[in-house]
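pasting for ref
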Amino acid sequence: MASILPQFLSVVILGIGLINTAVVEAGNPKPRMGLSPARFEFEWAGVPINDSLAVLNMSNSSLGVEVSIRTWDLDDKNNTRLLPPSETSLDRAFIINPRYFTIPPGSQQSLRFSIRPKEPLIDGEHRAMIFVKELPADQEESAPDVGVRFNYGLPVYVHSGPVSKTGVLHSISIGSNAASSTPVLFDFSSTGSSYSRLKGQIVAWPIDSFPGEAVALDVLEDIKSRNNTSAAADINYTQLPAIPVLPGTRRTIEVHAGDIERGVSYMVLVAGSIGDVTFEKFLTLDSDNE
């Protein structure tokens, strides 16, 4: 069991970060459930899609689980929004088994599903969410996680017809200070048949110690090649979150630029891609700008 536990732990963390799909009903305890993989993507070929999800109980007690399927999109704030089912929504095409089960401590359960639309899928992106919910269980009064349950949502994408991840990056700009952190704003329209996902990095230097654009780009490449996020004490490094922009929508993605000290101006390098658009831009950040 020790060989699979670290893998599942990393998957849980990744799954939470993808599109804000993990819900903790109380407190902030250590997760008791691990899921793999973090999301599913399929291309529809006119035949049933069959796959499975592994659910791991990482706790020392039995874990009751309930599984449900919903359809979803993202609202204007890039938060997951659950939608009512329709005759053609992807959630109606799911056959999943079992829906309820109990996992002994340190064990895992394979959750098999099949996607079988009653009608041919129209071209484009179809989405569902597999929710894996921890059911209430008897716990000792002294346990720190009493009253806490986890509800994870794993996105499922089914692409019908040609897949294109195209779009328009309207701007990259510095926003106003919020909660003692200054955001970088990405204004993007997704014009393809599939979502476009933000990827890349932000590196910020106090303007007095900025080494120049050419050296800054070399520093970024060095950080990426070494997977080293603390290359120097005076550099703030932030990995861009892999937030999707769904097809046919325009969204502003807000990413905080790291630990920004008030009263200090910074030079910020933003580099990466979203959809078929690559970007590399230097911005001046004034941390006193309200």
